[in-house]
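Feature request, filed as a ticket because there's no other form

It would be nice if the structure record came with a short human-readable summary line next to the tokens. Right now we just get the raw output. Example of a typical job, pasted below so the devs can see what we mean:
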Amino acid sequence: MTRGNIKQLVATWTSQGLKKRTILNILTPLREAFNHAIDDGVASANPVAKVGMIVKGCQVTSAHIDPLSSEEVQALLATARERFSLLYPLLLCAVRTGMREGELIGLCWEDIDLNGSFIEVRHNVVRRQETNIKTHKIRRIDLSPQLGAALTTLKETRQLEFSMKGQALPEWIFLTPHGHRITPEVLRKGFYACREKAGLRRVRFHDLRHTFASLLIQQGANVKYIQSQLGHSSISITLDVYSHLFEGDHRHQVHRLDDVTEQTDSADLKTPESAPQTHPRIEGSKWEKLEHDEIREKLPVGGVTERPNVPVLKTGDLARGPRVQISPPPP
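Raw output as currently delivered:
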């Protein structure tokens, strides 16, 4: 096998639509095999050396996502609650937290703070082996009230079941019917069965993670908050995957700027700083007439005097008569 053969394979895989990451996952073990062969003296050169240079020219395609709508999520959870009760807490956790499949499988009771209403993602299970989480950073995810109540009920039920058996509560949250940590095969088989019973289209389990993100976007969540909840290492990853969900007609936001400016300019023209500010009133209204009658009833004798050279209060009938000044009552 020569380096030319490897490049031809990469070109074939690229034309078939394989992603760059998938090709790297195939070539990396092959590279290690050639390294061992060189150490044993079986091979003299490694045609897969510098595998990154081989796949450098591969076209990176954007990830295809197919999130469920809020109505489809309700249908999925309702079916799981009725027919797949063991799987219901897991599916609810998937659509309410956006956790990856391996993170859900590796979730432990010690990772959940039911009083503080949050989850700390610490574990990840890949190919049944516990590994570090993808970003190598512990992240905190907020618990919705519905998910918090479901996990509380699940923990109480588990404690009762295992105490009756004389066994300690397992550290893992999501278990198989036999009480072992759930596996990817069992998880996906149950999800596909639940999906078919709910009458939904053929979506992957990983699309539940995209569903969580899309529902947050529909509710106007900040993109930085979405990034922290999903555990993306960079906000650019969040925007690259979900940018099309943010698209829309935003011209009304520019129109709002014009409206605010026009209102400000109009207000400045109507009420310049040098103009006297008059007391707002509605002429001829019954409220003004009642107010005028009350003032006349409360004035003491001699309380109204004629003073032509001072500001006056002109209301109701007095507006048609001589200019008058309302004097304060005597002490």
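Something like this underneath would help us a lot:
The beta strands are 112-113, 118-121, 124-126, 129-131, 139-142, 304-306, 324-326.
The chain has a mean pLDDT of 80.
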